[in-house]
Give the backbone structure.
Amino acid sequence: MKIVLFFYPKTRATRVRWMLEEVGADYTLQTLDVRAGENRLEPYLAVHPHGKVPALTIDGRPMIESGAICGWLADAFPASGLAPALDAPERADYMQWLFYASATLEPALGELFMAKRKGESGEAQAAAIVPMVAFAERALADRPWLTGEAFSAADVILASSFQWLRAMAPEMLPAMLSEYSTRAFARPAARRASAI
């Protein structure tokens, strides 16, 4: 299998690189100069029609959306143990959290980011994030990882989202979730992915 990751540092592409490192995939890193607009030129638009990163090609077939890519990688490399088996009770929690960060938490983080970028207080946007953070805090209150004792692709996604929140508004991230994110990013695969 030939995997190419289209990449730009400090974007959601980093979490996909982290997953590639976690599963031990052989892949090629194709860094795009987003600031120079390389992501808006052909042939990249043939890979990702919106010109965003990340994108992956698998034997030439494009795949987009970091959450979907991370979930696929966990299933495509089952020996990595990064996804509960289809019939495991933990699979439901895993699927929920795999999508929760991308579908619920990250849009709210994006609104907070845009408010702060415009010089606004972001108070209303921050208030919307509080129950989301509390939901994650309750889920992790009695277990080290989202599915229990085993680290999973869902943790890659959620920990990445919390890193973004920590960078924007560190006071909003409770100590327990800060420790969770720090522990996730201390994994060797995460350190390798963040090296660029």
The CA atoms of residues 114 and 122 lie 8 Å apart. The domain at 91-191 is CATH 1.20.1050.10 (Glutathione S-transferase Yfyf (Class Pi); Chain A, domain 2).
